[in-house]
Amino acid sequence: MTSTAQAPQSGARSAHPEHLGHVIFIAAAAAMGGFLFGYDSSVINGAVEAIRDRYDVGSAALAQVIAIALIGCAIGAATAGRIADRIGRIRCMQIAAVLFTVSAVGSALPFALWDLAFWRVIGGFAIGMASVIGPAYIAEVAPPAYRGRLGSFQQAAIVVGIAVSQLVNWGLLNAAGGDQRGKLMGLEAWQVMLGVMVVPAVLYGLLSFAIPESPRFLLSVGKRERAREILAEVEGKDVDLDSRVAEIEHAMKSEHKSSFKDLLGGSFFFKPIVWIGIGLSVFQQFVGINVAFYYSSTLWQSVGVDPSDSFFYSFTTSIINIVGTVIAMIFVDRVGRKPLALIGSVGMVVGLALEAWAFSYHLVDGKLPATQGWVALIAAHLFVLFFALSWGVVVWVFLGEMFPNKLRAAALGVAASAQWIANWAITASFPSLADWNLSGTYVIYTIFAALSIPFVLKFVKETKGKSLEEMG
After folding, report:
1. Looking at residue 264, what is its pLDDT?
2. Quick one: DSSP state of residue 145?
């Protein structure tokens, strides 16, 4: 599935103010998939220690249960485009909503570790679908003058979903008396944490019935009149609908369907630009960012922080993530992608190095010494802030802009797959690495953050202010 071709942003094209509220509603409804992406990805943070205790599993097995959802993510992301091209964007959203709902119920009521892992894969498949369908649908429905701002709804929804999941987990833990396995509504608290996702999942499904199908998809299946109606609905009746329909049809015909073969070449299998995209994806994950969202409660408890406090710190970290994302959205077009990435890398090196230093101290009465404890806490928030204001947003902007037109879709698919695989590697390895040496683990993440600086300086070209055609 390809997004709508970039078009000049003229005044005649912009949505009239009376239509803008409706367009914002449509984009927000589609971005509910992003909210569920963030929520489902990080809600497991509240259940890690309870799952370890209930099923009496070691770190390696526990890590596979946590990380296995990412396998589903990769499959969902790889297949969502084809599904959406065949049955439509809205139907694809509805399938994802059903999968999110089924995953939430199954994860809340597992009878063994293996079936919990199965429901995690189902949820991962839904995340993968949502990660592709939301941005593509918004790009296809949004009026050109508002496409950039409405497109940012997806990333904003993801970080809000992460924050809400941590807030819900903290509230439920307190309701269960601070015990992840405490009784709540006839279940253990961690089961309720995983089950609560039914609410936003059902809401996502209901909202999908209230928004129109993409005009681009309708034109692809010959429904010209319905496509015209929706274009009038989102762009205003004063727009020349015949020329808009002709423009979209022309763009669809002229698009080059890039394939894996297009990426081959150069001395190392792929063309150099593809390797740069893969490098950006891998560095984004190898700094250990998802440890902060999948394992932070476990991390804080391992250095003596009270469970209730550890859940609260997970929530405050996710708020910092939102703040950083907003900063990135404000400055990515003003400062540029490359300077923002470099600023973020330097900040992450400082934050991660301070965490590595703090975790190198021996626990006293099961806790880090006071000074090291505060340094670790502040450094963790600093790391998340600098990641969010840079690599969290900038990498996706780069990947959407840096490839030549004839490679873009296929290259983006390869880079996104590399990101899921790197995410899985970090998520699956953290519990065992932390058992080996927590400080050493953070030294590894610090090294990757430091290596990202020369990588960006040498290989990554600024894409700010350039049209997509200039990349070819």
Report:
1. 74
2. G
CB atoms within 10 A of CB 234: 21
Domain that holds residue 146: 16-211
Cα–Cα dist 10/140, whole Å: 17
Query: In the chain, pLDDT over 70 holds for what percent of residues?
Result: 91
Q: For helices 198-208 and 89-108, what crossing angle results, to 10°?
A: 160
Q: Among 12-21, 45-54, 352-361, 430-439, name the one with the lowest average pLDDT.
A: 12-21
User: pLDDT tens across 234-277, in order?
Assistant: 777 677 777 888 888 877 776 666 666 767 776 667 788 889 99
Number of compact structural domains in the chain: 2
| Those residues with Cβ within 8 angstroms of residue 345's Cβ, 6 or more apart along the chain or in another chain | 390, 391, 449, 450, 452, 453, 456
Identify whether the C-beta of residue 368 lies closer than 8 Å to the C-beta of residue 303.
yes
Contact criterion met (CB below 8 Å) for 327 and 406: no
CA pair distance 314, 309, nearest whole angstrom:
9
Give the alpha-carbon dihedral of 148, 153, 155, 161, to 10 degrees.
Answer: 180
Domain membership of residue 280 (yes or no) is: yes
* Better-predicted residue by pLDDT, 302 or 161: 161
Task: Look up residue 377 and give its amino acid.
Answer: L
Alpha helices in 332-366 (DSSP H): 337-359
Residue 14 confidence (pLDDT) = 45
- CA 209 to chain CA centroid, Å, is 24
What contacts 24+ positions apart, CB below 8 Å, involve 427-430?
Answer: 427/63, 427/66, 427/67, 427/70, 427/290, 427/291, 427/294, 428/63, 428/64, 428/66, 428/67, 429/63, 430/63, 430/288, 430/291, 430/294, 430/295
Q: Are residues 275 and 404 in the same domain?
A: yes
Dihedral through CA 351, CA 355, CA 356, CA 361, nearest 10?
150
The answer to whether residues 196 and 333 belong to one domain is no
Average pLDDT for residues 445-457, to the nearest whole number? Answer: 97
Q: What is the pLDDT of residue 4?
A: 38
Give kind and range of the element (H or E) at residue 270: strand 270-270
